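Usage

Read records sequentially. Each one opens with the input sequence:
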Amino acid sequence: MSLVGPCGVGKTRLALEAVSSLGAARFAGAVSTIALSGVDEGRRMDHVVARAFDQRADENWRAVLASRIGSARVLILLDGCEQVAAACGSLVEELLDACPNLRVLATSRQPLDAEGERVLPLATLRVPDESAPSTLASLLCAGAARLFAESASRASPELVLDGSEAAVGAICRSLGGFPLALELVAPLAETTGLHELASDLQREAAAPGTSASALPGIPPPVATAVNWRLAHLDPVQRRLVEALSGLPGGAGLETLIAVAGAPELHRSETAEALLSLAATSVVSVEVMDGAARYTLRDVLQRHVRDLLVEEGRFDRIGRRRLRFTLSKLSGGEKVLVSGPQQLRWMETLAREEGNWRAALAFALETGDTEAAASLCSELWRYFELSGQHVEGREILSRVLEADPSATTARSHLLDGMGMLAWRCGDYEAADAAFTEALMLADDGLSARLSNHLGLVALFAGHVDQAGRHFETALAGATRLDSPGEVALVQANLALLDIENGRPLEAKRKAGAALALQLALGDRHGQAVSRLHLSIADFFLGQHDSALCEAGEAAAIFTEFGDLRNLSFAFGVCSAALSAEGRSAMALELAGLQAELCRQTGVGLPPGWGERLEAALEPARRDLGPHAPAHEAVGARSDPSSVLALVLGDLDAPTDIPAHSLVVEALGDFRLLRAGRSVELSPQPARLVKLVVAAGRPLHVEEAIDALWPEAAPSTGRTRLRNTLSRLTRAAGRVIVREGESLRLAREVVVDAHRFERAARRALDMLAGGGDPAGALGEARAVIAMYRGDLLVDEPYEAWAHRSRECLRRLMLQLLEDAAEAALAAGEPDEGEALLRVALQMDPLDEARYMQLAQLLASLQRCTAAMQVIEQARAAAQEIGLPLAKPLSQLEYDLRHRQATAPAGRGS
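and closes with the structure output:
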């Protein structure tokens, strides 16, 4: 069905209300709302719609989406289709033909002309009859008058309509009953006066052409209201509205003040002006991560932008927006390659996408190729990780063609171009881009480019060539002392060892890479190392460990939207499940893996498809004729739902149901249902954290004292009841109350509790001495589970401190014992990495500094050992102590060794 009508008639509002009231009841929450306002090209529409379903807009994306929806009851709202009506009509026809239970609701100023389309024309609100009796009761029988009265009273609660019925009726008739026009003009009633406002609007209506010509394509009454509202802005409001006209993605206070070019504005003054604009329907407000974000109404945004362009003033806003965007995105590439804030930076880029796209378009339109190149240098990794590979290549191609100069910046762009081509399976184009980039790159980028060339060679089947590139990359990263790059290369060398039939060596390298990435906080890198570790475990016959590592990797790839690597992780999971005899689940995951390959347009690396098929053979034999086809199972599966089955408590002998709840308390707190994050308000979230930190049933009075220490007993119990009720409504059965005790529901899985059990088991294995290699492998897997300290977002709460310190001590003991085991097994690189992680967690431990420095000295790495001693000295000075005597003696010995070393000998 298409809701069709002119601008300002209320199409979007009605559509959202319909979706809100019908979506949960009739479509079980399977509702997707896709805003197409501002999208004026069919290719861009494809990208927007595909991304709403976590796909990339390749040539098969519509067929893949139709396959995913299948016969499920799904509702899609396409809002604002007028600029791409024909493309929307084609998309809707294709999806409805393939999906019998799909329903599509569209809003547009014109029909989509799709087969089977039902058009519902929307009329304006009924206006008061001029000849009807002028009483307040009769006036409010008209929908336009009711909306005007409600909007006016919101802005001016003291406004009295009695005695002004004729004026209100005249205002409604002058504005034609358009909801948007009424909402914009109503707040002016108190300052202008109802009778004067009615007279002015009638004079405006009697002068045809003025408003209509100012806003082409917009009904004259709406144009009148827009112009009137703009004319009544004060200077501060005007500057903010003009800035928002250049920020299609909306903005917070900091961005607005910068783009408005108004550093003299105080935050309080700006916030007050914005609240006034929000109260009078000029801007909409959304609170995200505790901060307000303001967006200008669509019609106003386009009109103000057009006026500024006409006056020649929009370029100033565009330049300020471009400068601000460049400053905000500076350093983003480094963060996304191996930084600890990858996910938060991805979320920031997704939230600001409308604005940085506008800034990039402005740079290209105005010929500022240097700025465009700088932006894309920071953004290419976002395109890669978010799955926008095809569009990312198109954008980078435009920038590279616009600025062909041979510069270091160009080498970064070519690096991004190569990675996006590699993601698309275009290995020839990737190799060409990396090779050209290598000729322009400085030393800092050369190691990474050699690593990327190795990936291309490996996936193209040139194993020997890949090895040479990786070794060059490792030497360069080591020389530059770049641990993030070293870890990425080691992870890829592990994959190379698997190809060469050396799974034990692969496990060692992937474990060392993972330890470094844990220390650096490189979350995506951790996922890659876990994936390669899981493959090594599978070939070593350690199927439980393989499933655990691949499942954890899949969880991280899902967070990033990295479908290509997610596909690979699901392939390993399915192989491990098949080996364990869990045949139905193995084939379910194999089907999903095949589906993801179709979505990304890229299959598994050479030879891996055959290996997976061979690994699944036991599952097919087990199920016989009942084995489902991959395509059928994958089409019905949602990655997050299937992921919940893999990510449950792997110590349990049975599969965890798809509705299970997972609490992530190590690092940033999250509650996940079926793999999807559940948003909790502060008090329910704190209650869950409290019970998790306790690790045992908690007495009601303990909970009340911890959360509301100032509350009276009766008040505390009321608050607890309300908090439990809100928690249950938001997330289901998370906490169970049994008499006077609170405990976690049995289906809730807590990562901190899993880590504690697994860590104690690993420590026992390391101390037992029975199977050193197996114990070290178990320790690696457990160390990878520790994503950060317990409940880091509650640093000052006493109830979290004890459990946090207990888990920290457990982790430090595990790192120490695993480091000793690695050194005993002749794995000094891994031992070094583990000791460095331990020192990062506890930088005041002199014994560990000594152990690490002695290790480096024994490896003839005297310079590195001296650097460790300097770190120990700085840590000691910070708390007012001298360097420990054993470290001072070792420093003296090392200096003597360096002084007496033969000339030319390296250190």
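Summary fields computed downstream for this record:
- The chain has 45 helices and 14 strands.
- The radius of gyration is 31 Å.
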